[in-house]
Amino acid sequence: MAVCLGIAILAGAVETNAAPIVIRFSHVVAEDTPKGKGALLFKQLVEERLGDLVKVEVFPNSSLYGDADELAALRDNKVQLLAPSLAKFETYTHQLRVFDLPFLFDDLEAVDRFQKRAKGRQLLYSMEQHYILGLGYWHNGMKQLSATRALRLPADAAGLNFRIQQSDVLETQFRQVKAQTTRLAFSQVFEALASGQVQGAENPWSNLYSQRFHEVQPYITETNHGVLDYMLVTNARFWYAIPHRIRTQLEAIIDEVSYAVNREAAQLNEQDRQRVAASGRSQIISLSPREREAWRAAMEPVWRHFEADIGPDVLKAARASNRREE
Ligand code: LMR
Predict the structure, then answer these.
(1) Residue 33 Cα: closest atom of ligand 1
(2) CB 31 within 8 A of CB 268
(3) 314 Cα–ligand 1 center, Å
């Protein structure tokens, strides 16, 4: 009741206020990445189509908020749009842990199918009680393992300390190969790798290249062992307070931007893979099917550990997305 009243008051305020609605969009990556480009395209289309009604301000590279405080800032309405990686919502829901399970999705197309089908769509609303509303999924890409030594088999990772995102699943994944983990905000990763605080990490090519991780990680193993994607989220109270006719236009723009981001993400990652290879700073290691199978066998037990937490129905739907027809 109090919540409804709050929304109604806010809605009234927006309707009667002649000043434009301001949407601050904060993120932690570089502008020349799938997420960075998506944020700029959103700003451009809003400016073109909603003119003086809505103003978008984009803050890349953790310049406004970083991993540690961005979701709290969203809930306090200090920022209105974020696209955190799906690993970063642990405090608000455990269902999204499904995206971090290693070797669950065969490729980015399977991830895409899951996100578009009913169960994946439902997860956009999994944090509603915290007033965090999912507006869409944005791809980055499949993760690769980087390290100070060549990782061909799981035993090669033993004893190394890997930087991870804020995620119990990822901690368990590395424990399976007898590695240690340190949770660090994205903005701290380069320094931690350069100083030797951690010796390894996992990232898609676009993050590896744009953050120059390849310059301080002499080996990158092309494992494609998991996905790093994003949920575009807003503060539900803010969103539903936007007058309906403006909100529906914003939602149409978001659909268009999501389509563009998701269509181009794989290509951007491939381009950055080639840039990393051309730099000569890091050796890219391709795994034989037998070697990749060894990583899968070592890491897959993580699924059982988190199945109850995620929900067997969600896990089943995610696995089914590896098949085209469903
Ligand atoms: C990470 O922390 O490694 C990623 O979530 C950063 C990002 O937003 O791609």
Answers:
(1) 9
(2) no
(3) 23
